[in-house]
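Technical annex, item 7. During the second reporting period the consortium partners agreed on a shared format for inverse folding records so that results from different sites could be compared directly. Each record opens with the tokenized structure and is followed by the designed sequence. A conforming record, contributed by the partner at site C, is shown below for reference.
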């Protein structure tokens, strides 16, 4: 499987906790308390990997006698009793080394997610293998919480959680060593804290939120092409007669003839008038 343990790493939504809690008849305060104590309220680490704690004493038992266990013991990855050595701040380097010896046994020997479920219990919560469980846990915290509810029901302690029998819940979940870490009193204190905080409004009968309907896309009609400017109107007129050029020659001749006639008449009397003789 993927050795960087990367996934979508989605966080719980506002209504996931009351919704999942309703499956076993508890409110969000009980589940919040469970998450606070078992995984500090978050299912992923700072690298967005599922929160994980590798358990060398579980790995020791998973391997059984043989060369694999001998190799794990030699590398400090396995020992017979819980608490023999302190846990490192980051368990992933140890897990990856253990996977090189036996991948399935290593994944079964680690606690995963919001409520630190051991991989060995993958079948109790419906997974075919610890690899499938870890891959699903890498995607969404809701998977962690759904697995928690399924395991509480499988182990028949969901009624103890409803009744707030914290010691029973702590021992069932963490084993007989729960007293050393005071898991029962931590659960009780965390529950008291969350009871003072207002719950998320949610009802199992409320309809599930529907995704918003897509806004229909109305096609915008193409703008009509601009009309061509109208052609200037052509007004047909009757053709006008072209005036014939006026000839000035006849007028001039007439004037000349008239002038000559007058002159002739005047000349006819001229000899008499010039010499003062009245011509009869």
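Designed sequence (site C submission):
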């Amino acid at each position: 499987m993927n050795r960087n343990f990367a996934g979508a790493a989605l966080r719980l939504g506002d209504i996931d906790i009351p919704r999942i809690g309703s499956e076993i008849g508890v409110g969000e305060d009980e589940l919040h308390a469970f998450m606070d104590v078992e995984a500090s309220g978050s299912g992923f680490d700072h690298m967005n990997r599922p929160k994980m704690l590798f358990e060398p004493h579980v790995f020791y038992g998973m391997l059984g006698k043989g060369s694999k266990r001998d190799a794990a013991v030699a590398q400090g990855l396995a020992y017979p009793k819980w608490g023999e050595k302190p846990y490192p701040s980051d368990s992933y380097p140890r897990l990856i080394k253990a996977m090189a010896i036996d991948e399935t046994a290593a994944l079964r020997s680690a606690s995963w997610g919001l409520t630190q479920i051991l991989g060995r219990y993958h079948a109790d919560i419906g997974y075919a293998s610890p690899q499938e469980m870890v891959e699903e846990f890498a995607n969404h915290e809701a998977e962690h919480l759904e697995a928690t509810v399924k395991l509480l029901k499988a182990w028949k302690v969901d009624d103890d959680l409803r009744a707030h029998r914290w010691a029973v819940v702590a021992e069932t979940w963490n084993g007989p060593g729960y007293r050393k870490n005071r898991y029962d009193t931590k659960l009780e204190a965390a529950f008291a804290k969350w009871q003072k905080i207002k719950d998320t409004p949610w009802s199992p009968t409320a309809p599930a939120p529907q995704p918003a309907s897509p806004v229909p896309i109305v096609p915008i009609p193409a703008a009509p092409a601009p009309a061509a400017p109208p052609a200037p109107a052509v007004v047909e007129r009757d053709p006008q007669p072209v005036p014939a050029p006026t000839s000035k020659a006849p007028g001039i001749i007439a004037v000349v003839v008239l002038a000559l006639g007058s002159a002739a008449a005047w000349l006819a009397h001229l000899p008499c008038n010039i010499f003062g003789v009245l011509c009869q």
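Residues 57 and 81 are 5 Å apart (CA to CA). DSSP finds 13 helices and three strands in the chain. All partners now use this format for quarterly exchanges.
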